[in-house]
Amino acid sequence: MRARSVLYASLGLVGTIIGAGIFGLPAAFSAVGFWPGTILFWLLATAVLLTHLLFAGLLMHENKRMRLTGLVSRHLDPFFHVVASLTYPLQLVASIFAYLILGGEFFSIIAHALGIQAPVGLWQVIFWIGGGVTILFGMKAVAKVNSFATSAKMVTVLLAVVVAWPLVDLAVVTSPRSVQWFLPFGIFLYSLSGLSSVGEVVELTRKNKREAYWAVGIGSFVSALLSWMFGVTLYLAARGFPIRTVPEIVSVLPSGWALLVPVLGLLAVMTAYLNIAEDLKETLDLDFRLNAQQAIAVALGLPLLMLITFSRDFLGTIGFIGSVFVGINGLMICAMAFKAFEKERRASTKLLGLFVIVMLSGIYLFGLFERILLRESL
User: Fold this and answer.
1) Which pLDDT does position 142 carry in this prediction?
2) Which CATH class is domain 3-374?
3) What angle do CA 366, 368, 371 make, to 5 degrees?
4) What is the mean pLDDT of each run of 10 residues along the chain (378 residues)?
5) How far is CA 27 from CA 56, 245, 375, in A?
6) What's the 3-state SS for 309-373?
7) Alpha-carbon span 84 to 95, nearest angstrom
8) What gap in Å lies between CA 333 and CA 257, rounded to an integer?
9) Residue 90, CA distances (Å) to 69, 303, 324 in order
């Protein structure tokens, strides 16, 4: 097994997963409490890890490069291809929109600390321009930026946990919270999902099954562990106070470390933004047959249009993406994997695979119906 290949592929997945969603976790834990939140978080982390592995397995059996929409068109009925053609690109576009919201806020806080006053909207546009220029230089430029930024991001997450730890109030662990344990469902799913980078992992490992599975497993688990540590520590350091905004997260840390969260935020959002924007461009190119110029125009133009048009509610945006888009795309993967396992000759492997798929489908369906029918969120 080539350790370097697994390392680079794992870092790419971590770079995508630890993005905007990590900054919604303190609010998610504060809404339901430590134990319900932790149980739900790791349940969904396991579900997402298994979904990533199923998706990687499906991609490795294809003769050419493709993403989710192309895979669905080959294995499921035309109706599902139409659905995937909407939900997968929309998940990517909406994610980039969330990154623009948060990236601009982090820029604004850093600029304010340096004595530069400007509207948050201007910083969001500047963040969009910076990401767009990097995307225009292609995948090699993205890889160079990510290899540094992802490593720095992991160190910064751990540093934020260490700095906030002396402020932690463990009494909050046993304090009662909302009985609506499902409220952070969408935020947790969004913060854990790295579906857009699984295709890149498979390509970086040259479809070597062992390397690809190791990279997906390591990247998914490390991302979940770091995210949980950050979300729980900030929640406990805030003594259960619902820290919903970036300034509130910043206020939890000692004043000497006030810029740590904005710096972490820029690293987290930048790497995830670049990965997902590149995947959206690849999806439009490989699955929708748009030329390079058209793919770049859509990948960069639609999120900017959303930034100009829609309300900039960060928690509401990522909660909706997680429950609806991640849920539907997860169901698509389950459906394709179900057909694949039906052909398995070994009875034990077949039964285990089908059992896992049914369990995953139930989890995604619950989140989807909870969001659509109850319409309750943080």
Assistant:
1) 58
2) mainly alpha
3) 105
4) 83 87 92 92 97 95 84 90 89 88 89 89 89 67 65 87 92 76 91 91 90 96 96 91 81 84 82 78 82 80 85 84 94 94 85 93 93 71
5) 32, 9, 18
6) HCCCCHHHHHHHHHHHHHHHHHHHHHHHHHHHHHCCCCHHHHHHHHHHHHHHHHHHHHHHHHHHH
7) 16
8) 42
9) 12, 10, 11
Nearest to 294 by CA among 306, 309, 283: 283
Task: Please choose, from the candidates 25, 55, 27, the residue with its C-alpha nearest in 3D space to the C-alpha of residue 41.
Answer: 25
What is the secondary structure of 215-267 as a DSSP string? HHHHHHHHHHHHHHHHHHHHHHHTTT----SHHHHHHHS-GGGTTHHHHHHHH
* Domain boundaries along the sequence of the chain: 3-374
Q: What is the pLDDT of residue 44?
A: 97
Which residue is listed with tokens 């913060």?
191
* Radius of gyration over every alpha carbon of the chain, rounded to an integer in angstroms: 20
Q: Please tell me the distance from the alpha carbon of residue 279 to that of residue 92, in angstroms, as a whole number.
A: 8
Say if residues 30 and 336 touch (Cβ distance below 8 Å).
no
What length is written for the chain?
A: 378
Rounded Cα–Cα distance for residues 288 and 358 (Å): 30
